[in-house]
């Protein structure tokens, strides 16, 4: 069932998805003041006003480079999760979160829009890794009967992050010419919180058993998460999953795209995700 320690572990992990939501929406509200900052930086360096087209280009790069970082992080998520483990991967990823937040937060102080752009790229990589590692960790620590329901916590954290970023971005709060670096720099908070909370949590039992073959450690992790010594059912379910995965044919990305049987489900999934983003939900 849903134990207190399992809730704690889920909260600690889902801070990564909150980070993703917050950084997706945080750049929108203070657009005008950040564009003015770009113009001020240009004038300070070159003693003339920036052309409107150049200002728009720099602003567009600062916004869109977050998505480029997200793609990089998303593609690397599986590699990081398998190489370092789900928990350790999340902890290491927070170094990127802290670094990206600091770059954005200090960009105005150092009069550098390049720092803002680089910070957005770094925090984008951080969020891309979170979108892979957080659902992976939560699904692997959750009991089988709660796995589907707890999976929705990821999207809930994203929407809470989006909402908070929009509220704090109001001009009367942090969306003004003096406070916008703090608005962007607040991305350090969920990263630091996760670095403090997550070390108490165990590594994913599935990773320990199926990837590392550490059955005793997997049992200890399950006992802590389930608050019970009766974990044989979970162990057997993992073994059955491992046996089933070994009998499945392995496919490369190219084979997946070429497969006529999988082409329609793949197309539907891609179109649904594209439709969500093209609807302007994050605009």
Protein architecture, described:
The protein has 283 residues and is mostly helical. The protein has a domain of 198 residues: Up-down Bundle (Growth Hormone, Chain: A), CATH 1.20.1250. The protein is built from 13 helices and no strands. Helix 4 runs antiparallel to helix 5. The protein is globular, with a radius of gyration of 21 Å. The mean pLDDT is 91.
Helix content: over 70%
Q: Mean pLDDT score, rounded?
A: 91
| DSSP strand content | under 5%
Using only CA atoms, what is the Rg? 21 Å
What's the architecture of the domain at 4-201, going by CATH? Answer: Up-down Bundle
- CATH level 3 topology of the domain at 4-201: Growth Hormone, Chain: A
Largest sheet: none
How many strands?
0
H/E series, N to C? HHHHHHHHHHHHH
Q: Which superfamily, in CATH terms, is the homologous superfamily of the domain at 4-201? A: MFS general substrate transporter like domains
Structural class, from secondary structure content?
mainly alpha
Q: Ends: how far apart?
A: 38 Å
What is the CATH top level name of the domain at 4-201?
A: Mainly Alpha
Please count the helical segments: 13
Poorly predicted runs: none
Shape, please? globular
